[in-house]
Amino acid sequence: MCKVKKIVFTGAECTGKSTLTRALAKRFGEPYSNEYVREYVQRINRELKVKDLEIIGKGQFANEQKACKNANRFSFHDTNILSSILYADHYFQKQIDWIDRKFRKTRYDFYFLCQPDFPWVSDPGQRESQKAREQLQCKFEQILENNKINFIPLKGNLEQRVQSVLDHLSA
């Protein structure tokens, strides 16, 4: 069980989550977990299929646990399993019960919802479109609200976002 503060950066594609996660992990000298689906897609070099969803869920949890295990005060997470749940539903209309159960049992201390105010950058195989980003952002906000998860919206450039996170962590 993780005894450090778990900090999650969530939101649609191309909202600055990865950059922010790495910047804060470096600043604090703490570990972070990558978004597993990105690693997986690069490794398999094909479009995702329904059969991949369980592998992605397991990989995402493993990345989170590794970061948590190696942390002293904070573990930073470039998304978490909530993204896997949302994308499985959005792209495949699929729910995976064990992932849903594990998500509900896992405690996260802070959720930061990165807003889509960063310029859209294409990333073939990883990002659908700027229009999809807007739709997915609404779904992220909705799934957080539906699960009664308190979240802090993050806007602005990287420095502004870092400062906002620092302010909340020190409060």
List the helices and strands and how they pair.
Blueprint: E1 5-10, H1 17-28, E2 32-33, H2 36-44, H3 53-69, E3 74-78, H4 81-92, H5 97-105, E4 110-114, H6 130-146, E5 152-154, H7 158-170
Parallel strand pairs: 1-3, 1-4, 2-3, 4-5
Give a verbal description of the structure.
- The chain has 171 residues and is an alpha/beta fold.
- Helices cover 52% and strands 12% of the residues.
- The protein is built from seven helices and five strands; from the N terminus they run E-H-E-H-H-E-H-H-E-H-E-H.
- It has a five-stranded parallel beta sheet with strand order 2-3-1-4-5, with helices on both faces.
- The two termini are 24 Å apart.
- The model has no long low-confidence stretch (mean pLDDT 90).
Relevant terms:
171 residues, alpha/beta, Rossmann fold, five-stranded parallel β-sheet, 7 helices, globular
Query: Count of helical segments?
Result: 7
N-to-C series of helices and strands: EHEHHEHHEHEH
Superfamily (CATH H level) name: P-loop containing nucleotide triphosphate hydrolases
Largest sheet composition = 5 strands, parallel
Helix content: 40-55%
Would you identify the CATH architecture? 3-Layer(aba) Sandwich
CATH class: Alpha Beta
| Overall mean confidence score, pLDDT | 90
The number of strands is 5
CATH topology tier name = Rossmann fold
User: How would you sum up the global shape?
Assistant: globular
Estimated structural class: alpha/beta
Strand order of the largest sheet: 2-3-1-4-5
Cα end-to-end separation: 24 Å
